[in-house]
Write a structure and sequence with these properties.
Immunoglobulin-like, six-stranded antiparallel beta sheet, four-stranded antiparallel beta sheet, 10 strands, binds calcium ion, signal, membrane, transmembrane helix, CHRD, transmembrane
Length: 219
């Protein structure tokens, strides 16, 4: 029995002490954009789309991190620095932001990823051949600009957005020169964790099998 207790404790420790990892995704469409301006695409003319894969890690040293990789279809991004922010072709991306806001709601920026008004820091990678932007949001990304005051277009620390993330109240919005206020949008939602569930089931199964074998050998 002592052996079983040790195994159970080991399994529980494995799950509780290691950093927790969660998968998120966002599917970006023109239909999800909430019109807030005549320069949006309320008529649904755009055929662009996007898919973002994100990984949240909590419990690690240095605070939470959220890696993201957003691949766009039917839109272009520029690898040239500085990015074009004043003029460009209709299908060229002017800005990518992660915003606060539930489905159907427009709200302030959480992270400025690409383009106007600022970008994620040195971890941002832009691949124009695949129209992909990827990077890492952490607490060091808080940037309130030269005034030092948090405004609607500033980036915040990831810790200050975790509650919204876990509630499904963050979204990607992609702004192009054709649709400056937003051409495509996608809510960031958690993906079920089959790997973590499998680990728990595996631990329980292992304990049951070992217990059954030991009980059998007693008789
Ligand atoms: Ca960053
Ligand atoms: Ca500011």
């Amino acid at each position: 029995m002592k052996f079983i207790c040790c195994l159970t404790f080991f399994g529980a420790s494995l799950l509780s002490t290691s950093a927790a990892v969660f998968s998120y995704q966002a599917i970006l469409t023109p239909e999800a954009v909430v019109p807030g301006s005549p320069t949006d695409d309320p008529a649904g003319i755009s055929t662009a789309s996007g898919l973002a894969q994100l990984t949240l890690t909590t419990g690690g040293v240095g605070g939470p991190t959220l890696s993201y990789s957003l691949t766009l279809t039917g839109l272009d991004v520029s690898e040239t620095i500085p990015r074009p922010t004043l003029t460009g072709p209709d299908d060229l991306v002017r800005a990518v932001h992660i915003h606060f806001g539930a489905v159907g709601v427009n709200d302030v920026h959480g992270l400025n990823v690409y383009g106007f008004p600022r970008e994620d820091d040195a971890d941002l990678v832009v691949n124009s051949s695949t129209s992909t932007v990827s990077g890492l949001w952490d607490d060091s990304d808080a940037n309130f600009g030269s005034d030092g005051i948090r405004g609607a277009g500033d980036s915040v620390a990831l810790s200050d957005a975790l509650t919204a993330l876990q509630a499904g109240e963050l979204y990607f919005q992609v702004h192009t020169f054709g649709f400056r206020q937003g051409e495509i949008r996608g809510q960031i939602t958690q993906v079920p964790e089959p790997a973590q569930l499998a680990l728990v089931v595996g631990c329980i199964f292992f304990v049951v099998v070992v217990y059954a074998r030991r009980s059998k050998h007693r008789f």
